[in-house]
């Protein structure tokens, strides 16, 4: 979370490398849904920076943050759903401790 607030997306790379079939499409769909919802509801980001220090430059900050939350929820649900489908088909094994 800390990296995301600072505008650094490299924290997601280990998760994408672990399971690219589920992670990458989920990240893409979550980003598209969240950003589209925020823009559709009236959020405008005048400065091309996603870090927390650029948030004062956003018009309709509440809507912008709601778009971020919506994108995160969509991403999480899609990752869980895709991994569950892979597990049920026997393409994903879960190691026990």
TrEMBL record:
Keywords: Membrane, Phosphotransferase system, Sugar transport, Transferase, Transmembrane, Transmembrane helix, Transport. Its EC number is 2.7.1.69. The chain crosses the membrane at residues 21-41, 61-82. One of its GO terms (molecular function) is protein-phosphocysteine-sugar phosphotransferase activity. It is an enzyme of class 2 (transferase). PANTHER family: FRUCTOSE-LIKE PERMEASE (PTHR30505), FRUCTOSE-LIKE PTS SYSTEM EIIBC COMPONENT-RELATED (PTHR30505:SF0). This is Fructose-like specific PTS system EIIC component 1.
